[in-house]
Amino acid sequence: MANYRVNKISEETRKIIDEIIREDMRDPRIRGTFAITRADVTRDLRHAKVYVSVLEEEFEKPFIQALEKAAGFIRNELGRRLQLRYTPELHFVLDKNIEYGIYMNHRIDEVLKAQEESREDDDNNI
């Protein structure tokens, strides 16, 4: 199967799973700010690794547990909407990249602020 087709199916899978979670799931553990960052579908379309980022750390574990419990429902809805020969088995993975990016932005801001304060101190000493 062509690589571009797998990439296209992976992106469509990501979008549809995001819709299903936001619109169709009623589990109370699905709360907080989250993003489906990517879905990697295997070439044979049998499995998909779905990366989920949850911004509030205290909601991460229950969120993933709820998704794992609802994997059958999500897969069924995905199959209905995607209409492929095979609907991939879903494997949910916690993605910390967004959280790490926010952390790095804070660190950069701190360094820039310290540099600016240092320059101001140097200007005041002249």
Describe this structure in words.
β1 (34-41) and β2 form a beta hairpin. 60% of the residues lie in helices and 17% in strands. It is an alpha+beta fold. It has helices at 3-24, 57-69, 71-82, 97-125, and strands at 34-41, 47-54, 89-94. The longest helix is centred in the C-terminal third of the chain and has 29 residues, at 97-125. The chain has two domains: 3-95, K homology (KH) domain (GMP Synthetase, Chain A, domain 3), CATH 3.30.300.20; 97-126. α1 (3-24) packs across α3 (71-82). The chain has four helices and three strands, in the order αββααβα. It has a three-stranded mixed sheet with strand order 1-2-3, with helices on both faces.
| Count of separate structural domains | 2
What is the CATH homology-level superfamily of the largest domain?
K homology (KH) domain
Number of distinct beta strands: 3
The CATH top-level class label of the largest domain? Alpha Beta
Alpha carbon gyration radius: 20 Å
SSE succession? HEEHHEH
**DSSP helical segment count:** 4
Task: Give the helix level as a range of percent.
Answer: 55-70%
Record the strand order, biggest sheet.
Answer: 1-2-3
Keywords for this entry:
4 helices, about 60% helix, 3 strands, GMP Synthetase, Chain A, domain 3, about 130 residues, alpha+beta, 3-stranded mixed sheet
Brief overview:
The chain has helices at residues 3-24, 57-69, 71-82, 97-125; strands at residues 34-41, 47-54, 89-94. With 126 residues, it is α+β, with helices and mostly antiparallel strands.
